[in-house]
Amino acid sequence: MGGPNLEIFKFGMYIMFPIAWMYYFGTNLENRFSVPDFWPKPENTHRIPFEKEEIQGELERLRLKRLERRARRLEKEGIVASNSS
Fold first, then answer.
1. How far apart are CA 53 and CA 3, in angstroms?
2. CA-CA distance, 69 to 62, in Å (whole number)?
3. Tens digit of each residue's pLDDT, the chain (85 residues)
4. pTM for the structure as a whole
5. CA distances from 44 to 28, 48, 76 (A)
6. What is the distance between the alpha carbons of residues 57 and 82, in angstroms, rounded to a whole number?
7. What's the CA gap between 9 and 27, in Å, rounded?
């Protein structure tokens, strides 16, 4: 059919293709596949409170947020309930 030279060429391709593929995608990853500003900056992420005052402040903030959402929901339901009557 093709002879020994063809078999040597095919074997070389079978060996070199995965190596070339890994070399192309494995080198210079930081510049080739990076997305600028993908990860948030430390000042934009959540900061876990460790001190007692910080924990109390955070709990108070969450409580006020929950009460505000509840008030908006009740107001909306009150408007919907009065319209359906």
1. 81
2. 11
3. 678 889 999 999 999 999 999 998 888 877 777 788 888 888 888 888 899 999 999 999 999 999 999 999 999 988 766 666 5
4. 0.44
5. 28, 12, 32
6. 37
7. 26
